[in-house]
Write a structure and sequence with these properties.
Belongs to the Mrp/NBP35 ATP-binding proteins family. By secondary structure, this protein is α/β, with parallel strands linked by helices. The chain contains eleven helices and 17 strands. The protein has helices spanning 2-9, 49-64, 102-115, 132-135, 165-168, 178-191, 210-219, 232-247, 278-286, 298-306, 317-347; strands spanning 13-14, 19-20, 31-33, 36-41, 68-73, 89-94, 120-124, 143-144, 151-152, 154-156, 159-163, 199-203, 223-228, 251-257, 262-263, 270-271, 290-293. Helix 3 (102-115) crosses helix 11 (317-347), helix 6 packs parallel to helix 7 and helix 8 packs parallel to helix 9 (278-286). It binds adenosine-5'-triphosphate (ATP). The site of adenosine-5'-triphosphate has 20 residues, from helix 3 and helix 10.
């Protein structure tokens, strides 16, 4: 009976890994109990579009076979899980240089993931410009938790937020040396009571120095996003970021082109203020996907000023672009995790 069900589940495809979920080793031991079928699935990117589709397809097949589905989700893989309680999928948002919109991308990405139903933590590690609390309109400071002295993150827009800005204030010039920055960031990260998270977005300081590397190693990053604007000078810096990740065996989930073009309200014409096609060129050069092109739009900047991420703004063009970014990023996370599980399963001979 369970083998019939297993065979039926092979009708469900993983559209990213391009094979069926049984052959990929994503279906564990199926158990039938009366008219209920328990199906363990190896999935790693909660609320991602593709994994949502896979679970819906599995439920439909199980029902077609005459059972009520009960799914459980657990994954074994070799990708780094965040080294915090709850081992979330850690996504580092990086840029080779400051001012390209890395923090704006981090905030809107994290908000969009939370709006899809995921538990999301956002860590503002940008020591040189910790302005995420302001971008989220956060007035309060994090509190000490009563029981064990850990710090409780601030909750805002469905996210759990901790920022180095809560310690230094965003007007204070940071004159710390690298070692001190590392120490403070590491303590802040580990002393925060994050709870169970699905995704953990880290807004890295711009550049490719020691601070960035230490953080990558400390947190256990699953993959990075490289944010760039379209013009050559920004691309040169973004290229350095991508090389830094590759050198340290950190996957690059994709490239984000920000300030990609400005569409005039009045005439509807697109103006490529900062040249065009740079993000795609960078993506092609390293064979990574271009995940989104975020337009240059005053609403994005205004959202940052008033503390309301533009992604929550209904159907506007920038909101849609950030939502696309979140969906594709989550799908890239799922791809990394399922692929790693599938490869492991093949190696240890479980995928027969
Ligand atoms: N697509 C966009 N359209 C309009 N304004 C934008 C866009 N992206 C970012 N901005 C604005 O550009 C400024 C810089 O953005 P942000 O602080 O996110 O950059 P950053 O790369 O994180 O900088 P740093 O690393 O120096 O802190 C902000 O005022 C922000 O509101």
């Amino acid at each position: 009976m369970t083998s019939t069900l297993r065979n039926a589940l092979a009708r469900v495809d993983d559209p990213i890994l391009d094979d069926d979920i049984v052959s990929l080793g994503l279906v564990g031991d199926v158990e039938v109990d009366g008219d209920t079928a328990h199906v363990p699935l190896a999935l790693g990117a909660p609320h991602s579009p593709v994994e949502t589709q896979i679970t819906e397809d599995v439920r439909a097949v199980v029902r077609d076979e005459g059972y009520e589905p009960v799914l459980s989700v657990e994954i074994d893989d070799t990708t780094p899980a965040g080294q915090m309680d709850g081992a979330p999928n850690v996504i580092a948002v990086s840029s080779g240089k400051g001012g390209v919109g890395k923090s704006t991308v981090s905030v809107n990405l994290a908000t969009a993931m939370a709006e899809r139903g995921a538990n999301v933590g956002l860590f503002d590690a940008d020591v040189y410009g910790p302005n995420i609390p302001r971008m989220l309109g956060v007035q309060s400071e994090p509190g000490r938790a009563d029981d064990d002295g850990t710090i409780r993150p601030v909750e805002s827009h469905g996210l759990k937020l901790m920022s180095i800005g809560f310690l230094v204030g965003d007007d204070d010039p940071v004159i710390w040396r690298g070692a001190m920055v590392n120490k403070v960031l590491t303590e802040l990260l580990h002393d925060t009571k994050w709870g169970d998270l699905d995704y953990f977005v880290v807004d890295l300081p711009p550049g490719t120095g020691d601070v960035q590397l230490t953080l990558l190693q400390q947190i256990g990053v699953l993959g990075a996003l490289a944010v760039t604007t379209p013009q050559d000078i920004s691309l040169d810096n973004a290229r350095k970021s991508v090389r830094m990740f590759e050198k340290h065996d950190t996957s690059v989930l994709g490239v984000v082109e920000n300030m990609s073009g400005f569409v005039c309200d009045e005439c509807g014409t697109r103006h490529d203020v900062f040249a065009t096609g740079g993000g795609q060129r960078l993506a092609d050069e390293f064979d990574h996907p271009l995940l989104a092109e975020i337009p240059l739009d005053p609403a994005i900047q205004q959202g940052c000023e008033i503390g309301e991420p533009v992604v929550s703004d209904g159907n506007s063009e920038p909101a849609r672009a950030f939502r696309t970014l979140a969906e594709r990023t989550m799908d890239q996370v799922g791809r990394e995790r399922r692929r790693s599980h599938a490869n492991g399963a093949v190696e240890i001979g479980q995928n027969q």
